[in-house]
Design goal:
five-stranded antiparallel beta sheet; single chain; Heat Shock Protein 90; rod-shaped; five-stranded mixed beta sheet; 3 domains; alpha+beta; 455 residues
Amino acid sequence: MDDAVNVAGSLRARLALTLIGSAAAIAILLFFVVRTYAAQIAQSGQDSILEASVASILDAATLRDGDVEVDFPYVAFSMLSTDADDRVFYAIWQEETLLSGYELLPVADAPDGGEIVHVSAIFDGAPVRVATAARILVGANTRTRVTVSVAQTQDALAGTLNKISRNVGLIGAGFFILSVLVASWATNSTIRPLERLTHSITRRGPKDLSPVARPVPLEMAPLVTSLNSFMARLDTSLKQSEDFIAEAAHRVRTPLATVRSHAEATLQRVEREDNRQALRSMVRAIDESSRAAGQLLDHAMITFRADHLETQTLDLVELVEDLVTRLAPVAEMKDIALTVISEGAVSVEADSILLQNALRNLVENALKYAPEESEITLEVGASPRPRVEVRDEGPGFPPDQMQGLAARFSRGDNAKDTIGSGLGLTIAQDVATAHGGELTLDNMPEGGACVTFLL
């Protein structure tokens, strides 16, 4: 029977990957959001300083005799000093004429009235931030437009952003590590009720089909309900199967025994030899059918009980002696002596019904093949393991077929003329296996078969 389970991934791994993946996505999003927000704040700070510088220069511009004069305030450029020694550029225009500064400095189209416009550009091979404002100066007979642009490189801003990025990256990494730990804890906590249910079912004995009473999470309730329903149906089915086997054994054996008794009674009254031969064949067929039906039912019963043994403490010697007492009439019909050898009580934990079936089949097999006026010996021992050896003085097992004789419906070549179904040794072997033992077959040097039933 193939016990392989069709596995489609791990629920634990799926849940952990979902949580960790979500944490990674959040950490990355957090990094970019914080960095972008920090860049905006830093840029806003630089823009404010540039605005102040431009405004101070415009405030210092005057119109005298039609000419624009600018008395540069010291603070206009000193406020732009940074730790990175950013370079500062400026340009002052009167209408289209450059009054002072860098002619190629990018100048934005600023409206009149002092409103300041900011642009980012590349100047002198470096990225700069440019603030531009324009104002109309009015003299006695003159009206002119003055435009002031101040630009500053962004080395300090880039350094600040790099520092912020590192800090945000470290915070994101810490958040991710913490999220992994939380995800691991959450995954284990979520899966633990399922593991407890699995362990609870695994620890049960093979006959324990009681419903699961342990509290479970709401999401597992449908699963546990279905499991309890299945176990209830299985328990009912097993009980019905056990009752059916017992009833079938009674209903099959009793009619066959009745027919056999009538056939034997008729055989005693019939005188014609051909009729007597027919009746003997009938009795033989009834015996064969009865034994085959009985052994098939025994085998079915053993298969059913093997997975849930009803063990109890038994005295193996007492059980064998009781079996010999019940089979003594059969042995006396062939003048066969049944002898039990033991050195005292042998206590075992076993299923009484299965053990009786197994040993009865072994002894009945020996009775079938043992010659008349011979002896069958049943030796019961406890060392090194509880065992029963059944030895007869019959033809023994075919040496070349001995390995397969315990298989179902398997019979040796020397058993063709003997009634049997090929299930006796199978039943004994299945019972031994169910009790953690084994069945071994051998031939004795002086002749006869030896079957060892080990528990």
